[in-house]
From TrEMBL, chains A, B, C, D:
Belongs to the peptidase A25 family. Homotetramer. GO terms for molecular function: metalloendopeptidase activity. The keyword Protease applies. It comes from Wansuia hejianensis. It is an enzyme of class 3 (hydrolase). This is Germination protease.
């Protein structure tokens, strides 16, 4: 059976528990609400939980900021700091003197360029450690950063490039930044997910590419992602639900059709929509019109947050300072 | 009543005559099929026709190239030439020694950057006429070109910038290039529209901005457009039609709902969808994932075509030569 | 007689008074030293002074920041604020509700792209005044901003584009930002000049282009400039002086040659070098290797300073906030 | 003793044999003149020759095109083809089914961005070989391509990134593209050098970085370079020579100074100039004003030439076709 595609753990959960607040076995969920944002921590505790929500074992922290796509500069700083705090907590236990940051995605495709744009802006310091022949510094972590591109640009698998670098420079920990896809339009550029399970490539048909995980690379892999697109089929699906729901409420009409759709499993319905759509739109995305500008803003928030979280000497007062 | 939004004259027609081949009064349509493309010439002949298809009087030439979004370099050259031929025919009657080319749209938004990208690539010659104090040249037209940006970037209405330049340099004719929106996904980056009616800003609520037309600027205005986005509501609407159609064919189910929807006018149905969508997605577009790359390719085709059409000394052999 | 080319008033002065501290008639000079920078205010008081230093009547404020090309983020903020303070003082007397900011220069040439990059980053507000039909706001000035490009890109004189816009939107004051050329390598990207005399195009041979000045545009024109290049002939000239000086000090050798060069007027010597250089390097500049990166940094400093100086509601705490 | 810095073998030779046409032992030189360009083939045959011109053993082909910096489109095509021909001849003997192309340099510094810009434009095919599980194709070589950035951007040595990729994908041959520095202003953007000795990092003080050579990587390394900058000290040196030469011819003056300078070895003189210059200009380059535009043009020529030289199925008629 085909998996409804989403990169967000918090959405996997919602698929199974849309309204009912019942807990899933093997999965713990905690929500902390702040004034401007909420933090949801999903822990996949065992194989049972992993199968239920189709996500690997580990911790998934989601920061939801409903107004992050607006141009409120104070909010952006607040979220950089909140993101840094969550990231710090997640990597607390790991050794992290030497850090490699990887910006995944295609820099020629706006909606996929979050990773490369963060790499452009993050503070890179490893060259100073080498030039001054230093092993350790009290205020700075030893940070290298690179955007490996995508196979369509380089002809080389991302894993091969990253693995080669990891073998050479032997970091303690890897942080990968990537643009995600979401099931919900209102999560686009308003949600940041941090997890300690690494990156698994799209589990689509016949995809045998190696992921970036502790198993494949031999070191802890932290994944940071922000949804930038919604799949077109997803959007049609959600809109149809809304329309039918709204028509049903207004009158007794449509109930036959609605019953039929209700009779289908969610995944069958999604498959039906995808089949209808696929002939005439292969590679279509649904995205905000100003996604280019949003990605610029988000890459600053993430780069600021990374700088605060990983360098002992950079704090709140320095937000926006080390951004190139 | 709200107008279903589309920038393509050929689509206005389709709305009213989806299958029936009946002619619309006051509108003539001619189609010429070539191996790799077809050219549809819609002429809005009088006020009756204008009201029917909600487009100003004038000629609208649409070049449809189903495979233009593929990377076939020979096809791209062929279309540059075909486009140049149609453009030449459309401006045959006009004086065109001095040409001003305007690239409309926001260069920071990929799907809206066609105009500015064409301006980057088109051959500009007016400076030589000024420096050598020349009035006329046998091989070169006198061409100026500028991208005025959009009001969100400059704080200035496009019309005010263009009108100021027109008054100063007094061109014979203005050619405006713009990204369009289409009703159909399969037109995205596969259709070029050329018209002699200028550019009218979106006729949405309370939009009192001045268009770029013969009436407002005092010179002929040729508009060149390529659809780069589909409105999200449009896509949902079209997909729902397809799904219901497909379900209806398969069984007797859904007929009640379908009848209801059929009972609504097309525009009422569209309005319903838009109402449902609007709360949670204001500014969403549906676009190919690689729109950035497509726009680059299309801007070369248009710039090549413009160079061939307006400079007597540039012909087919020079395609790709004067592109920066 | 050919004028040794420089855009900086403070350098014109130095040409005539290299070491001697004697005052020039008709020119007042004040220097204020701060810890990290100094501010020199040159006032050209009358025609005599104007002829002496070959600059129009008016005030020229130069902020010299020896370490501005280093990556010290605190210094950058400090200079944004110092720049804002000087700019505010210079425009104190003018009406400035409606401001038009012009970014001069060619965005395709790194060393010439300061103006366009500032325009990309400055806060533009005029659209809100129009959309909300407002005449005045207590916290925000009414700001429009545009980069007109250069004649080689558009085929249109900068003056024609700017004059057209000024006529349409009728600002109270115009602020033009431009990259300058300097006589001294150590001024590159370390000096900001603000003046109230507008922009006069290079006074070279046969240059009849209109400047952007109160006379040509009919409103006060503030010019903001930062040197980004040194002319190659200038650099050779200065280095030769240093070498001969150094050799002369070390021994009695070279004195004959030195005497000869000393016998030449400075301008004749410069002309000689230019003649020798010109056959084999027409359009050469001397610039820091990382000028692209420096221009990015400087454009942030200038945009921040502009935002602070012209919007009543933006102050020091907001530095870096309204930068796109 | 410090080496006068130049990346071009043909200039090393000129240093020692400025006018005299005498041959250097261990070095063979052949010149072929075409109408629009000349091809100089320098072969360093043994250790003696290598020491004389301070270049590793191997073949250095230099294509000189005096007008390559002009906008003559026919010439550009001609040079793409000439370059492809020379490159083909140089790699004739090597196995070259699988090719890795490396674009060296810093994409944020215009004058250093030739390599990355070529990588953006070159045809990459390795992904098709992998997706279709193919070992060999008659019309296409198996090409991967990447720009590793520079240590200041990534914190990682170029060698480490390249070596990691070479180990993973095991190409038959590596082609590295880089911007060079020249001793002569008139070589900037008019000379292409191809060699089979790989890339050795600047042999400056204490530089212990590993080069990209057959010895370090274990496969043949072809280096393609175009000079984009002249060192500032070099330019002062050359200009002073010209000035003194010109003054000496005109009169008997300056001879004392000239004799002194003549008494110094060339390298001592250069060192003197560098000492004088260094305090006030660390990192200065001399470059054409429009280097950004020139690099764009040159990267197309190189990418076209590479495509023609390495893919059996791409020939002259396809020039400009596979450029992105």
């Amino acid at each position: 059976m085909k998996h409804i595609y989403t990169d967000l753990a918090v959405e996997s959960k919602e698929i199974y528990n849309p309204e009912k607040k019942k807990e899933i076995e093997g999965v713990s969920v905690e929500v902390a609400d702040e004034k401007n944002y909420s933090v949801t921590t999903v822990k996949v505790l065992n194989q049972k939980g992993s199968q239920k929500i189709r996500k690997p074992l580990g911790t998934y922290v989601t920061i939801d900021v409903p107004n992050l796509d607006k141009t409120d500069e104070d909010l952006k700083d607040e979220i950089s700091i909140a993101f840094a705090k969550e990231l710090k907590a997640l990597i607390k236990e790991y050794k992290k003197n030497k850090i490699l940051i990887i910006g995944l995605g295609n820099w020629n495709i706006s909606s996929d360029s979050l990773g490369p744009k963060v790499i452009d802006k993050v503070l890179v310091t490893r060259q100073y450690f080498i030039n001054y022949n230093k092993e350790f510094d009290e205020t700075m972590a030893n940070v290298a950063a690179i955007s490996p591109g995508v196979m369509g640009l380089t002809g080389i698998e991302t894993f091969d490039i990253v693995k080669g670098i990891v073998d050479k420079i032997q970091p303690d920990i890897l942080i990968a930044v990537d643009a995600l896809s979401s099931r919900k339009m209102d999560r686009i550029s308003t949600t940041i997910q941090i997890s300690d399970v690494g990156i698994s490539p799209g589990s689509g048909v016949g995809n045998t590419r190696a992921g970036l995980t502790k198993e494949t690379l031999g070191l802890p892999v932290i994944a940071i992602g922000i949804p930038t697109v919604v799949n077109a089929a997803t959007m049609v699906n959600d809109t149809m639900d809304l329309i039918i729901h709204s028509m049903k409420e207004q009158a007794e009409i449509g109930s036959e059709f609605y019953s039929l759709l209700e009779g289908l499993s969610k995944e069958d319905k999604y498959k039906l929509i995808e089949e209808v759509l696929s002939p005439f739109m292969g590679n279509v995305i649904v995205t905000p019109k100003d996604i280019d500008v949003l990605i610029d803003d988000l890459s600053i928030i993430v780069a600021n947050g990374l700088n605060i979280a990983i360098h002992p000497g950079i704090d709140i007062a320095d937000v926006n300072r080390y951004i190139r």
